[in-house]
Request: fold
Amino acid sequence: MKEGAAGIRALLARYALPIESAAPLERLLALLAGDPAAPTAVRDRARVLDDHLADALVALELNAARTATSAADIGSGAGVPGLPLAVAMPRTAFALLESNGRKCAFIERAVAAAGIRNVEVVHARVEQWREGLGTRELVTARAVAPLSVVLEYGAPLLMQGGALVVWRGNRDATAEAEAAGAAQELGLAPREIRAVKPYAGARARHLHLFVKEKPTPSGFPRRPGIARKRPLGGRSRSI
Reply:
């Protein structure tokens, strides 16, 4: 417990977060590590701290993420990166999208256990969340789909000027070229690929930042499954 608390204090200091953020982050850490129903293979507390909490909060290095007042997290899974970011950004309204009902139930339990008040859990595929179109200043996605596919999922949700942040590992020139082509079709512009080190020993971590410069054409997102089958900018590939 001390190790976890000390690690969370270090995260608060790193990102200049208020002390009030400590308790909900500690509850998230305990739930992700200890709840048998948590949809994650990471159970060691130190690894949960690094791979889930620290890896989520590293998005705060991007001003476009940190200053958003509305956000959506696509394919939220165990609630990461959405829940840690919601704790860190209490004035930002977060929607956590997840198509799996069991995972949604876990996220709702985590929201209640951590006392997070700025999160809406949306049980839906992102392609079918019509009420979210054009409503968000920030969209996040971690370990969801190939980069060009994530762009198609995220662009329609963004307001003009909004930012899409995608977590990735090693740089991939082909995937980045495909994403640049997809971005052009979707009204997005690649803005930055930032190498980040969310915790000591982290390797090959990158945040891909895209900004919505033009309206996304009305045909996007295409119906469920099409983005993966016929990805914009190139052929389908595994993440």
Observations:
- The longest helix spans residues 101-114.
